[in-house]
From TrEMBL:
This is Adenylosuccinate lyase. Residues 336-450 form the Adenylosuccinate lyase PurB C-terminal domain. It comes from Candidatus Roizmanbacteria bacterium CG2_30_33_16. GO terms for molecular function: N6-(1,2-dicarboxyethyl)AMP AMP-lyase (fumarate-forming) activity. Pathway: Purine metabolism; AMP biosynthesis via de novo pathway; AMP from IMP: step 2/2; Purine metabolism; IMP biosynthesis via de novo pathway; 5-amino-1-(5-phospho-D-ribosyl)imidazole-4-carboxamide from 5-amino-1-(5-phospho-D-ribosyl)imidazole-4-carboxylate: step 2/2. Keywords: Lyase, Purine biosynthesis. InterPro entries: Fumarase/histidase_N, Fumarate_lyase_fam, Fumarate_lyase_N, L-Aspartase-like, PurB_bact, PurB_C. One of its GO terms (biological process) is IMP biosynthetic process. Residues 48-314 form the Fumarate lyase N-terminal domain. It holds the Pfam family Lyase_1.
Length: 465
């Protein structure tokens, strides 16, 4: 292979699958987690800071035209202005400092405008992480609101439809992998549905903190040189205008605790969906679901008949990678040496990988849910074969009627035997119970023994509306 570097990007040469084979699936995250995105958000924070300095009276008042000029500057960059963002990268090659490159880029741009007299106030009194922590907070907040939450919502919507289509399908319950009390397929899916709704509500409520307070978090240079400005109020107001929560008590870096809480929420959401994927995989294995067959697709190179549950399997693997990173972030970002060290900078540059694998997995689950439908006959046939599950109501009715040996009677008849309905009825007729009690048991079948499962489904789906 030619050792010369080809600067033209090819997905075939990408180092990771996120930017390679799956690049087309993750385009919605690019505006938030690429290097270009990071530099855009840095420029955004710097420009907003300069505007705030003017609005607060700290520096001269800008004209409406000048405010509009700064806004149009940002709009141009947001539209992925190749020249501007490439220029930042070229400056960084000289400075070997990414935030300094952003500062110089803005200063160079403003030199050609009526704002050239305030160029020196770009980045006044700030440390790099005043800009970076705000930029990353905004990247994560916006991507979560605009991409991640809607993707989870789609899973919940698809799961809701599957619940509705299976809310009357009686199913054998399994505890420890063994036959247990019957349930309803839709109710078992409802468990995941409700857990996701609750955790998603928690995610939506989370506030992301940010700081703007100088080199060691004390506004040292601000107070010394411009004491007329109340910098404590300025900082809080500025952070709030960004849509973030102000944190006044920090070192050089914002402590990341609010992000760690968010990562924990995403881990819980991803783990809930992993559980859903594993259960659906096993139900498919049992034949409880049809899988959509697409003629052009291949399930196995060895076995031509196969249709594999690849979307649920792939999602499980992707969530594993994402959660491993989120868990690492939660550990690593919990501490920093003294007032700061730079190890967090390397770590947070990888945030997009965790979010990327999460999104990829959400998409896989959504597709997987669209490709399955309940096989009612197999599900019900499996249930009615397991008459032994009726030992539970029998032994409990005996208990209710004061029979101390109720459990032993049922155990001796049912355990380790293949039970038929005729054999069960003969057993019931021989019990020391009233005719009315025997009638209750004689009329019982596995598919009728589902408790309030259907009512639970109707109640919760109605409540969620």
């Amino acid at each position: 292979m030619d050792s010369k570097i080809n600067n033209k990007f090819s997905t075939e040469d990408a180092l990771t699958p996120l930017d390679g084979r799956n690049r087309h699936k993750l385009k919605t995250l690019t505006p938030f987690f690429s290097d270009r995105a990071l530099n855009y958000y840095r420029v955004f924070v710097e420009i907003e800071y300069l505007k705030a300095l003017s609005s607060s009276g700290t520096i001269r008042e800008f004209t409406n035209k000048e405010f509009n000029l700064l806004t149009s500057f940002l709009v141009k960059l947001q539209a992925r202005d190749e020249i501007g963002l490439d220029t930042i990268r070229q400056i960084e090659k000289k400075t070997n400092h990414d935030v300094k490159a952003v500062e110089l880029f803005i200063q160079n741009e403003l030199q050609r405008t009526s704002l050239k007299d305030v160029v020196s106030m770009v980045h006044f009194g700030l440390t790099s992480d005043d800009i970076n922590n705000c930029a990353y907070a905004l990247m994560i907040k916006h991507s979560t609101q605009q991409v991640i939450i809607p993707s989870i919502d789609k899973i919940i919507e698809n799961l809701s439809e599957l619940i509705k289509s299976s809310k009357n399908i009686q199913m054998l319950g399994r505890t420890h992998g063994q036959p247990a009390a019957p349930t309803i397929l839709g109710k078992e899916l409802l468990v995941f549905h409700q857990r996701l709704l609750e955790e998603l509500a928690n995610l939506k409520k989370l506030n992301i903190k940010a700081k703007l307070n100088g080199n060691t978090g004390n506004f040292n240079v601000h107070k010394l040189l411009i004491p007329k400005t109340n910098w404590l109020e300025f900082s809080q107001k500025f952070i709030k205008t960004l849509g973030l929560t102000p944190d006044l008590v920090t070192t050089q870096i914002e402590p990341y605790d609010s992000l760690i809480i968010m990562f924990a929420s995403l881990i819980r959401i991803n783990n809930i969906i992993i559980g859903l994927c594993q259960d659906l995989w096993q139900y498919i294995m049992l034949g409880y679901f049809y899988q959509q067959v697409i003629k052009t697709e291949t399930g196995s190179t060895a076995l031509p008949y196969k249709t594999n549950p690849i979307y649920f399997e792939g999602a499980e693997g992707g969530f594993g990678i994402a959660n491993a990173l989120f868990e690492f972030y939660s550990r690593k970002l919990s501490y920093s040496r003294l007032q700061r060290d730079l190890s967090d900078s390397t770590v947070r540059r990888s945030f997009g990988i965790a979010f990327g694998y999460s999104l990829l997995s959400y998409q896989s689950v959504e597709e997987g849910l669209k490709r399955i439908s309940p096989n009612k006959k197999v599900i019900v046939d499996d249930l009615i074969k397991h008459i032994e599950i009726l030992s539970e109501p029998i032994q409990n009715l005996l208990r209710l009627r004061g029979k101390i040996d109720a459990y032993e009677q049922a155990k001796n008849f049912f355990r380790g035997k293949e039970i038929t309905m005729d054999g069960l009825h003969n057993f019931i007729m021989g019990l020391d119970l009233s005719e009315a009690n025997k009638k209750v048991l004689l009329n019982l079948t596995p598919e009728k023994y589902v408790g309030y499962a259907e009512e639970i489904i109707d109640m919760m789906l109605s409540f969620n509306k």
